[in-house]
């Protein structure tokens, strides 16, 4: 805020000099902090997510195992991309899982045809998802609002049906697409690993670090995904701060005004749609790179709905929200779904028997197979009380602390509103 | 030939003849006022000029080219900007962003993919938007979210947005409605300055006769979708038909 006041007071000549002098990699101010936070969180995730000693009873809440961490960042990429469409333009797609699935199929095909190096697979998954989203976006964006959502949903379900049955030669239908020893793998050299790898380094390679009672898994595949997500996040910041990003927010705010201001909103929304489709394809390609298998269920509407939940839960239109939302939902899915009655009885064992059974009975529907119930409740609470998602929650907490330090006038509030991203 | 030529335009809404055989010629670099009672069809006429509505019959020529059949953004790119009767701004964006967007539209056309460089790096646009905001005295409000502005400020902002495009034809639909007297006078001053300084043609709809007579070079009186008379402000003031149809209800 102070920066802004000086900005106008100093006049154009000095501001221009200032503008040039500041910034790291084209980022400035809060964005540098945000980028730093994401970089730290992803790099240190194997440690942060395993706060409890492996032998303690709390170890079941640890989330620092490779398989889950990979999912955190892969769905993070999916949600970051989805947010570029939904968060900025307000166009709510219910079909983005189709692009995820297409990405996975493309990657597996590259494994089958060329070999297990993941680079060609990732490149193709982004390209194919981009083309596919260009077609679907071009048609769906002729409508807006609920009709747009329904169109994308219909396309995704068609894609699912095609993958499941009609296109069996390409998708291997119900069984799912996988690599067989009879596949050509033209570029696979004899000494290369026969599982997905990056120039010889296997995705599943894991170094386990033991420190006292703690154990931390440093998995190569996770770090590949993490680096990709950090890059994806960086690109998203640049898009958010660019004139293109501003135009996308203008679409959401007042599309009429935009058109009467000489701007054609259609290509802007289509570009956002394709970019988010490519992010989804990349996520799909990474999924296949961690586990060389692609099934049609990856395209189902539930998967499309999941990314919507992630984005809204974290905070649609905010930069970091989708990453948080993706992490939270995947954490719930894995940790809460593992808690069964046996575990519950253990927790409440210190209670008298009658009360123990009662408590287990109350908690039971919300854990294990019922984790969706918890998720649903959480989602409802967030949408009702924190429409801006987890990010808004964080901001409210932060503003309570800030109010103590300086009297927060209208200016501070305006600044907070402006800095929602 | 005027820069804007409206010929025999008709527009019906169901059984209602909103515009009946409207002919209008606006000469370049003049200010043409359209007045008339509520429901006369003034806004409908503007809607036909900017592609919001398509007339049932008739033609609309701007700068020698037909406007009909073009999309709103194409018509704007021809050089027509409009201030709406109820402010149309980007409510979720800041005042400054609101003004930058039309600057981008003017410089880059209907679509350009500049997705990597930050907005702040576009120094020419930033400077342009800054001086535009200074011109309408809103520089100190640059970082306010536009939806939280007062109604008068929203109008001023929308006017700044349109002016920053340096349009050839500026359409103003009741630009001072809901403004305090002081703001109205500021707006008149602003429009007078714009008119004196730039090559700009204005078409203004206004109920406030003070505004009309301060700015207009010619006035068309519209009643029930049909132009009654068109003349200079002095002649209009004394015209018996006009007094009867319209001015009788307003202070002159
Ligand atoms: N989209 C529409 N559909 C149906 N009727 C309409 C539509 N737009 C305008 N009308 C009708 O056409 C007539 C002319 O409306 P218009 O808005 O052009 O009047 P106006 O001269 O601008 O009035 P005001 O001074 O109140 O703004 C009115 O009776 C109005 O109800
Ligand atoms: Mg009107």
Describe it.
The complex is a heterodimer of chains A (about 425) and B (about 250). By secondary structure, chain A is mainly alpha-helical. Chain A has a domain at about 35-305. Chain A is built from 18 helices and six strands. Chain A has helices at about 1-20, 30-50, 65-90, 95-115, 120-140, 145-165, 170, 220-240, 245-255, 255-260, 265-290, 300-315, 320-335, 340-345, 355-365, 370-385, 390-405, 410-420; strands at about 175-180, 195-200, 200, 205-210, 215-220, 295. Residues about 1-20 and about 410-420 of chain A have low confidence and may be disordered. By secondary structure, chain B is α/β, with parallel strands linked by helices. Chain B has two domains: about 1-80 and about 165-250, 3-Layer(aba) Sandwich (Rossmann fold); about 90-165, no CATH class. Chain B has helices spanning about 40-50, 70-80, 95-110, 125-135, 150-165, 180-195, 210-215, 235-240, 240-245; strands at about 5-15, 15-25, 30-35, 55-60, 65, 80-85, 170-175, 200-205, 220-225, 225-230. In chain B, the strands form two sheets. A six-stranded mixed beta sheet of chain B has the order 6-7-8-3-9-10, with helices on both faces. Chain B has a four-stranded antiparallel beta sheet with strand order 2-1-4-5, covered by helices on one side. In chain B, helix 6 links the parallel strand 7 and strand 8. In chain B, helix 3 packs across helix 4 (about 125-135). Chain B is globular. Chain B starts with a strand and ends in a 7-residue tail after the last helix. The interface between A and B is large, with 39 and 50 residues. Adenosine-5'-triphosphate (ATP) binds near residues 36 and 41 of chain B. Magnesium ion binds near residues 42, 43, 85 and 173 of chain B. Chain B: GO terms for molecular function: ATP binding; ATP hydrolysis activity. Chain B: It comes from Palleronia sediminis. Chain B: InterPro entries: AAA+_ATPase, ABC_AA/LPS_Transport, ABC_transporter-like_ATP-bd, BCA_ABC_TP_C, P-loop_NTPase. Chain B: Keywords: ATP-binding, Nucleotide-binding, Transport. Chain B: This is ABC transporter ATP-binding protein.
